[in-house]
Amino acid sequence: MDSADFFENLKDNNLIGVQCEECGGLSAEIRYYCSVCRSSNLSPKQFTGKGTLSTFTCISIVPTRMAEEGFGRNNPYCSGIVTLEEGPRISARILNVDALKPGEIKTGQHLELDVQARDTERPILAFKYLS
Amino acid sequence: MVDATRSRKLSRSVSIAGVGICKFGAFPTKTTRDLFVEAFKDMQVNLGDKFDVKDIQTAYIGNYSSDLFERQGHTAPIIADWIGITPVPVTRIENACASSGSAFREGILAIASGLYDIVLVGGVEKMTDLPTEDVTDVLATAADGIYEIPAGLTFPGIYGELAKAHMDRYGTTSEHLMKVGIKNHKNGKLNPNAQFNVTIDDMMKSRQARAQERGQEVPEWNNEIDFLSDDKVNPMIAWPLRLFDCAPITDGAACVLLVSSDIAQNFTDSPVTIMGTGQATGKALHDSDELTSLSAAKIAGQMAYDMADLTPNEIQIAEVHDCFTIAEIVATEDLGFFAPGEAPHAVDEGRTSRDGDMPINTSGGLKSKGHPVGASGIGQIVEIFKQLRGEAGERQVEKDLEIGLTHNVGGTGGTCVVNIFKKGI
User: Fold this and answer.
1) Is B168 on the interface with A (CB under 8 A)?
2) Do the chains contact at B150 and A61, CB–CB below 8 Å?
3) What is the ipTM of this complex?
4) Which of B97, B246, B255, B323 is catalytic?
5) Which of A47, B22, B214, B264 could form a disulfide with A15 if both were Cys (CB 3.0 to 4.6 A apart)?
6) Count of domains forming chain A
7) Among candidates B33, B87, B38, B23, which has minimal Cα distance to B59?
8) B147–chain A Cβ distance below 8 A for any pair
9) Among this protein's residues, is B371 annotated catalytic?
10) Are the beta carbons of B40 and B83 closer than 8 angstroms?
11) Per-residue model confidence as pLDDT tens digits over B358-386
12) With an 8 Å Cβ cutoff, are B152 and A122 in contact?
């Protein structure tokens, strides 16, 4: 596995990272050394795609690639840190929320994997906010 | 085997003999080399006749991305040529916004190694040629291109996440963040090199005066917090961070002359000496143990305290990396000045103001002085040097200062460099 596999798996709405065969440590990223014990004895790990929202932001001043998707000052988007039910955290777009009303978005809320742009070379890791 | 318990000290003491800084701001006609030369000339004035350019034996220059900002790579030899120090070796150091903090540490190590006695360390960034969206893109390249950027994250975005986590955990409010900005603008007003020489109160009153002049309805803001809560004046950038929670886009340069402490008196009667230095790396925020702290800052701080044999409560003044208002709050907790969750209250109580018991960012910080990313680390050191020598002019802290600290962060804690300084040798 290498970094390209992360995106390859996202095309099928699969979030696949690594699990350490020595200590059981998990990472939602494709790594070569365990981030807990530094062992290189890692194997692929498929995550269920269930998680909770740990923190988030709603971005109004957007980078050019998000502007190309139609986001901007009057149309912000939500991005957050998701804690997967298996434990590790990952950054992702948060869907199914009103980014103009961040006060109504609650941390701790349950989320479900919902990869966007699956038919492109660079699918986008995203989670649906379950309200 | 390496003895991990051995205390890490420099083999040779290193001092700062002189410093230079240019006016920070937006300068359409100035390029990277012009900015650096301006800072260098200021350092020559600071050092006076005792310094000869030919004394410099090597240099380390912090610069984040002249490649992307200006389409100019390999800036070190150009700077060397323009300040007239070729053929001495000059190396550019890139560690995002901690580029010049990292360059400074390399300069210290170069002297401590015994190879060099006199080393120039500087930082420079020319950012304002590009439109804001492109600057946002360039800065975002300092985050993880696979695991952070595709999520739509920007730098304000990641610090926005940090702010939200701090709010959830400790009850920090937007008002606390605004008070950091208000304080830093008060300090910046007194710094002639700052990009913004105005307080938030000045800005509020000038807007009201302008409206009156034009015969428009005069906005009724009761105070600075009221003003900063107005979406029209202070729009959201990355909730909960607004425009005035963010450091500006800035052109600027700064430099210092590092010398072996045993020859410092040849250059100046009042050198400033490095007591401790620490540097550490950290993971992406989502992989950090805590979402309310930058682990690299804690580790770099501890390394510096250990080397200096000091504790946080012995630090009298600090310049910390306030690229966003929340970053100052988190920095002062990571460095141990305040317990986790206490920094917002310390700001409330004025403890971090210039006349408080722990003055933070008397220069105006990155928020008001400006944030030319590759120059910011050295810019902080210039301020501490001036404060320790009693040369900070109107913003001079009115107490007997002996010990100061700088804290320079790259990215969202991917890199952190902390230095501790004392007056004299």
Assistant:
1) yes
2) no
3) 0.97
4) B97
5) A47
6) 1
7) B87
8) yes
9) yes
10) yes
11) 999 999 999 999 999 999 999 999 999 99
12) no
